[in-house]
Amino acid sequence: MAKSFIAYNFPSQSKHIPIWCIYWFWMLFIGVDSAFSQKYTSLSEREKHQLRTTSHILIDLKETSLDSLMFQTLSDNVPWAVVPSGNREKNSVFFNQYSNYRNQLVIIGQVGAFTQVPKDLSLIWVADLDMDKVELDSIGNIDQEKKSSDKELLSIYAGHGNNLTFSKLLDIWQSLGKMPNFIKAETSFEYLENLVHELNTNPKIFGVVQTEKGLLDGVIFKDFGDTQVGGHFSYPVQDTLALPILVPYKPGFHFSPDIIYTSPENLNNQKEFVGFPLDAEYGLSHHFEFKDGVTDKMAENSKGLISNDVGARKDSLFGKVSYFEDGAYVDVGISSKSALKGNFTISAWVKPTQLGQNNSILGKGDNFVFKIHDGFLTFTMAGIKDYVSTSSPIALNEWSHVALVHSKMENKLFFYINGERTDSVELISEYETSDYNILIASNLWEEFFEGYIQEIKIWERELNDSEIKTHYNQTKTSNKDTSFLKYVVIFLVLFGGGYGVSKYWRRKSETNEVKTTQSTVLPKIPKENDGHSAQILCFGPLQIIDVQGLDIAKKLSPLQKKLFMIIFLHSQGDKKGIDTKRLTELLWPGKSVANAKNTRGTTIQNLRQLLGTCPNLEVNFKDKHWFLHIGENCYSDYSMALQYLEFLASEDCAVTELRKLIPIVKKGRLFANTSAPWLDPFIEKFSNRIVEQFIQISKNPMIKTHTDVMLDLAEVIYLYDDLNEHALKMKLNVLIEQGKLSLAHQACHNFKKQYEKLYGEAYEVSFEEIIASQ
Length: 774
What we know:
Layout lengths: L18 H11 L7 E3 L5 H8 L3 E5 L19 E4 L4 H12 L4 E5 L13 E5 L4 E6 L16 E6 L7 H11 L5 E4 L3 H13 L2 E7 L6 E5 L7 E2 L1 E5 L8 E2 L1 E2 L3 E4 L3 E2 L9 E7 L6 E7 L3 E3 L9 E3 L2 E5 L3 E6 L4 E3 L12 E9 L5 E7 L4 E5 L2 E6 L3 E9 L6 E8 L4 E6 L2 E7 L11 E3 L10 E9 L5 H17 L52 E4 L5 E3 L12 H12 L8 E2 H8 L5 H18 L6 E6 L2 E6 L3 E3 H13 L5 H11 L14 H19 L8 H14 L4 H13 L3 H19 L7 H6 L2
Parallel strand pairs: 1-5, 2-3, 2-8, 3-4, 4-5, 6-7, 7-8, 9-17, 34-39
Antiparallel strand pairs: 9-12, 10-11, 10-14, 13-16, 15-17, 18-19, 18-33, 20-23, 21-22, 22-33, 23-32, 24-29, 24-33, 25-26, 25-32, 26-27, 27-28, 29-30, 30-31, 34-35, 36-38, 37-38
């Protein structure tokens, strides 16, 4: 009878070692007559790869009757692996029958002594330490700890009551980043054969992530969940029409390549990524030193810092440091408005002299407060939750190195004290930054810090545990060796990575929304992060994101950018484009027909070439008009905003859609930083529309019950009309309702100051009159 061979074949003997040595070694080591045997850890990398990417039926000879085994069904796509029995005779019978069909066998367990093993049967020993064991409960749940294991192989056991299906196995494979290699289930042998056969014939992607020193563990692939792969990885391909994109991510590292698109041509190739440690200062946006005064070493000068009654004192450890008391704080200024947007790390050396209920270390608007609450490190998102780390206590009258890390990828916070991670918490709502200044030793509730601060660093990226530990140790050593110096350097980092994604948080359940009969059906509008072939982002500076995530707008010349914007705006809604004559008048006035034609042709050709990396985004000439074709798989935030506005105009109250529109238009004014006479009518029309419509929406009694929405409406109105009195009334009314009277007075003061600056005269309406008129 012919035997079947699987991919991982091993030689029966070495070419360089005498045959008597091999015979003596195996007789001494495992007691096998002449069979070849090898541990998994001693296999070649090619042989390990074959085993990692193959599924087996796992047979426990201690529990299985030999009569129930279907040896005749053995095939390349349905290999077996066994757990030996304590009965040597039963093992020998199994080996003899198995060797009639196959010449290799995987054995699970520690290397042991077997007798009467057929001469031509090669054994591969897989120890428990080589694999993860996943025992599925009745609903198929997976232990979260398995998602960060660095073991290369995976064993699955589905007990009674667990309906193991091919779909469930694919989910396990996808969620763990490794193929189920050994499968044992309380089901029929024939059914299990079909499952293994399907797994082995299913398309897959696989590869390795490593550094110059070896395998790199703890790597996450974007859009593949929170699984951390341990160097080797494998994922099933469940849709051959939408092959996956691999983007590796690990705090503290960058990768080469940093992205691989899977294609039919490279599907079966091993994907290889090399990780390189980031420089310690990479992503550092702010580095505050506190001596005689407060300075930001990352800024050209510190004129933007506003210091309020911050004192200076001499400290035995750091020399001169800043002392905060009686409401002293520092306003970092407008340069900090764009900080703390996604991934971030904050570190600080603090020495509190008083611990009240709340003592703020750093605050930024209502969605970010890093403070000490009742003696414990705490992160607060107003209206959502106080994340109090009871495992992170801060000592009174002692220096502590504290750090806070936000991981956008994992949606988690990590707390550190003196270089050690003390806690990790999962956010119940995604973090979203606010457009406010950073305050040091205070926050919007005026929860002041009392004590000493020596240094604060902010990174726009996520630091890993090792980096924070290294920074703390370096600072600690530096302080010890330079005890007479004036200060000690502290390293702390903020992690940033960025996939520009659309996210927002909600404070109240939308079950309270008023449901009205829709006179207009809202079209299906894609989300910004749905994996589009191209994105056109018009709120804020123009961005054109291609399929690789690169901003093409940065490559456009000023003329090419204007050309794109003109054609884009004239292609919206029911517009059919712009004719050549009008286009020439706008961009090449005064040029001769011949010169304008040559310049226009060259400019359009170059623009088309640059847009070549944006599938389904094309500049076309049709019916004597230049038109921008935007395919269904392309995203335009301007088009989306117009559709939402049209829908909201026909609805009495639609909080759900309003919450989706606000994050789009809050990013900035339409085509910010661009000014041109031909653009002004578009800007003016859109500005008037959104201001008038948002004011009308704000008057709806049901909308007024959503205070967070009311504040957002006011902020958007301010973007387009920074002296809008109705927006001021809205904001003051909400702040007063929330009990934030001091913030309401400050908002009113800022409005009056801006009014006087613009019109050269005082705003005569008092705070009380504004509130009364609301």
